[in-house]
Amino acid sequence: MSVKGQWETVNWMKPSKTKIRTRILIAFSSVLFFSFLLTGVIFNFAIRIFAVQGELDLEAYQTVYAEASRLIGRVGLISIILISLMFLMAIIVTYFLANSLTRPIEELGKFALNIGNGDFSQNDFQFQEEELEDLNMALNKSAKQLAEYDSQQKTFFQNASHELRTPLTSIKCYAEGISFGIMEPKQASETILVETDKLADLVTDLLYISKIDNITTVYTKMEINLMELLRDSAARQEAVAEKKRVRFAFDLDDTPIYYSCVSELLVRAIDNLISNAIRYAHSEIVLSCHKREGSIVLSVMDDGDGVENEAIPHLFERFYKGVDGNHGIGLSIAKSIVEQQGGRIAVENAANAGAVFIIILPA
Description:
By secondary structure, the chain is α+β, with helices and mostly antiparallel strands. It has nine helices and seven strands; from the N terminus they run αααααβααββαββαββ. It has three domains: 3-119, no CATH class; 147-213, Signal transduction histidine kinase, dimerisation/phosphotransfer (DHp) domain (Helix Hairpins, Orthogonal Bundle), CATH 1.10.287.130; 222-362, Heat Shock Protein 90. It is 63% helix and 12% strand. It has a five-stranded mixed β-sheet. It has a two-stranded antiparallel sheet with strand order 1-3. The longest helix has 59 residues, at 58-116. The model is unreliable at 1-18 (pLDDT under 50).
């Protein structure tokens, strides 16, 4: 059987669909019809019950039934006309009622379809019904969020393409230099290795950003000791710090501080802040964790030269690189993670040191 034949068979097997207004008309008309029918049945049944119970003898029953029949005969024509008019009026009223109910739903259906097709413009249609207006506002909010997400993704891919092109260009140039014999192979290969490491780090960060931004990703929260988190993160990067002759110092509360979060994400955020501090510190990095009024405050402070005042508002933006910056992604990852975990992050210049990055989490 052809694909078209299979499709026709499947469609034939599907139940036919009817519009809401048609269903309302059928339902209302059926209710009226059966109401009139039930009234006549009850009237006839009531007379029979009275006769069976002995309240009416056979002769009286026949008299009552005959009188009732004559009465029905006299008013029959008038009743049929009145019932027909009532039935017709009910259908007309139901039709307009059905239209008033289905038109807003059709508008919302078109709006939802436009969102699905990538049109995130706001719906200005006003609804009288509170429930439908709430649904319209929810769809408008979703459309706005999707528009922002779509814009961020386009900007992200443009910047990512530029960042990837730079190391690839260097690798290509040095590889061609080796190939044509115009560069010393050992020196060129060392440069290629350095650029390859940068490229690998950049790809890792880009993949991590993609994971964080994925709106369908599901994470599992657990309680972790934030003091141990700081110590473990410092231990992982101690070799790099020692190479630059930088040591770690700790300023911690006396009792452990626990926080419910996605540990793997918060660990990555702290790692990025410490890695950034190592790049700029002269000799020391101070890691602190304290419980303050209704919040938990973590900080990573280095004794470097600090951050330029004009750079502070842009430091957490993706692909923004300060002086001697790497890819401009690490701090933006840290910001996204902290905000996902219900906190906020800021940076300032310490009075007697360099830059201090502060994470505030709800206690």
